[in-house]
Design a protein that fits this description.
The protein is built from 15 helices and 22 strands. The chain is an alpha/beta fold and about 500 residues long. α2 crosses α3, α2 packs antiparallel against α8 and α9 runs antiparallel to α10. The N and C termini lie far apart (about 75 Å).
Length: about 500
């Protein structure tokens, strides 16, 4: 057994036993009757999919679908060879997973068969685009991004962050076709259906790495949805494994870390409620254009062999270019959200074509605008607009929470048909906006010390002077105890001492 000690004793009781002579590294033990017993440690075999050795040797599992055999493609200094095993510096013998592995045998995980040379990266990208165009109907911009994303998956482990790719739409609009076609040319694609149990995905990603292909990701059950959210939330930044407790021999539960970092291709009908998670996706809505007549209704058998040949070329691309990428490209645009720049810059690093970079910038701008629009209409933005209006008339003690509540109820609160309380409003200000409140003269206020935070929040949530003007001119908003007037200086001044509002509870 790997990692065990074998007894190499050649005792007199077994004269016919033929054993190898003792080796210098053998452990020699003396038996109580005077006999010498030699123990030799077997080499420990470690099933491996891919590894980058310290001497910059790249090792990748390859699978020959004709001979049903797995082996390693090993690349060093621009040359590659096929090996059955590789010795690591730590004394482990790295071996490929067996060809009769259930996941390999049933094409749950796909591999190249051997590196195949190509002329230039531009030619390779042209082949990828032709392949995608032949089987999937996508917009021109998205098709360009998809081709580069497939290329990116083969060097994604050179970066610390990455985006996800998603096609969203109703059934019958080509989402599954998209996953099969594009996923088949990504690095180590793992085909996982949305109807499958989620638990094996942690093991698959931890063991094989590669690209997760998730179909029908609209999980209806809370446990499955929570697990998928963990994979997607932790999987786009390196170094954030998911911790799960597993039973050992059905007795003891031990925490285990699962590495889930890697590219993801997702197909779903709706969207995720988490705005931060939504910002990780490059998304196109399917069904926006009619199905082209030249796209086959059913995938032909040739598609599998075309995909295999492209995987072979993409493996050669990895061997040629892996150490060329030392990090992400500069920010796409300083005006974009920091998260968008963070996750899209690695993809931009592999894009040399001007049209492709323009396409990525277009998608980034659309994502930025969508995120900003959602924030502009959010509860947080409404509360900040109220605070900004009241801040221009605030006394030295700060902005009373009761005044914020009263003005909110007169304006935005009408949309919900219910009345906010100061306690609820204080919770929103503290927990969602992360602003500190304190008690002054018997009332809770947002103090002047929070002004620096407020300035950043106004910018983040798009609260502008125009929004404040609209709020100030809302009929019935600034009457009675909240009566304000615009001064020539352009700000708001109290008409008098504004009392607290004992009627607002």
């Amino acid at each position: 057994m790997p990692g065990q000690w074998s007894n190499l004793e050649k005792a007199g009781n077994f004269p016919s036993l033929s054993l190898p002579p003792p080796m210098p590294d053998d452990v020699i033990m003396h038996h109580m009757d005077g006999r010498k017993i030699h123990f030799r440690k077997f080499e420990r075999e470690a099933p491996t999919v891919a590894v980058v050795l310290k001497d910059k040797t790249l090792v990748e599992l390859v699978y020959d679908p004709f001979d049903k055999r797995t082996s390693f493609a090993v690349s060093k200094d621009g040359r590659w060879r096929i090996e059955q095993s590789v010795m690591s510096k730590g004394g482990e013998r790295l071996v490929p997973y067996r060809a009769d592995n259930n996941l390999i045998k049933h094409n749950v995980v796909l591999f190249p068969s051997e590196p195949e040379d190509y002329s230039t990266t531009a030619e390779l990208l042209a082949d990828i685009r032709d392949y995608i165009h032949r089987y999937v109907a996508l917009s021109e911009h998205f098709e360009t991004l998809v081709a580069h994303y497939a290329l990116f998956t083969w060097v994604h482990d050179r970066f610390n962050e990455l985006p996800y790719l998603r096609l969203k739409g109703e059934f019958g609009t080509g989402k599954t076709r998209f996953l099969i076609t594009v996923g088949s040319i990504c690095r180590t694609p793992i085909f996982a259906s949305g109807a499958s149990s989620v638990s094996p995905l942690f093991h698959l990603l931890d063991r094989f790495g590669g690209t997760l292909l998730l179909d029908e990701a609209d999980f209806r059950f809370s446990d499955a949805a929570a697990d998928i959210a963990k994979i997607l939330n932790n999987g786009n930044v390196k170094g954030f494994p998911v911790l799960r407790s597993e039973s050992k021999d059905g007795k003891e539960f031990n925490p285990r870390a699962f590495q889930v970092f890697g590219p993801k291709l997702v197909a779903m009908r709706g969207h995720f409620d988490d705005t931060a998670l939504e910002s990780r996706f490059l998304t196109e809505t399917s069904g926006g254009q009619p199905l082209r007549r030249d796209v086959p209704i059913n995938l032909p058998e040739e598609q599998k062999w075309e995909a295999l040949r492209l995987r072979n070329k993409l493996l050669a691309f990895r061997f040629r270019n892996y150490f060329r990428f030392d990090g992400a490209a500069p920010f796409l645009d300083p005006g974009f959200e920091a998260r968008l720049n963070q996750i899209l810059s690695p993809l931009a690093a592999v894009i040399d074509d001007t049209d492709a970079r323009d396409a990525l910038a277009t998608f980034a701008k659309d994502a930025h605008d969508a995120l900003q629009a959602e924030r502009d209409g959010s509860l947080e933005a409404q509360v900040l607009t109220v605070i900004r209006l009241l801040s221009e008339t605030a006394s030295v003690i700060g902005i009373p929470i009761k005044k914020v509540t009263a003005l909110y109820n007169r304006t935005y609160g009408k949309e919900f048909g219910c009345t906010a309380t100061p306690k609820w409003m204080g919770g929103i200000i503290r927990k969602r906006l992360n602003l500190k409140t304190h008690k002054s003269h018997g009332i809770f206020v947002v103090g002047p010390a929070e002004q620096a935070k407020l300035t950043l929040l106004y910018e983040r949530y798009g609260v502008t002077d125009e929004d404040v003007d609209v709020l100030a001119n809302t009929p019935g908003a600034l009457t009675g105890e909240l009566h304000l007037e615009r001064s020539q200086a352009g700000d708001f001044r109290d008409m008098g001492d504004i009392p607290t509002l004992p009627t607002i509870q």
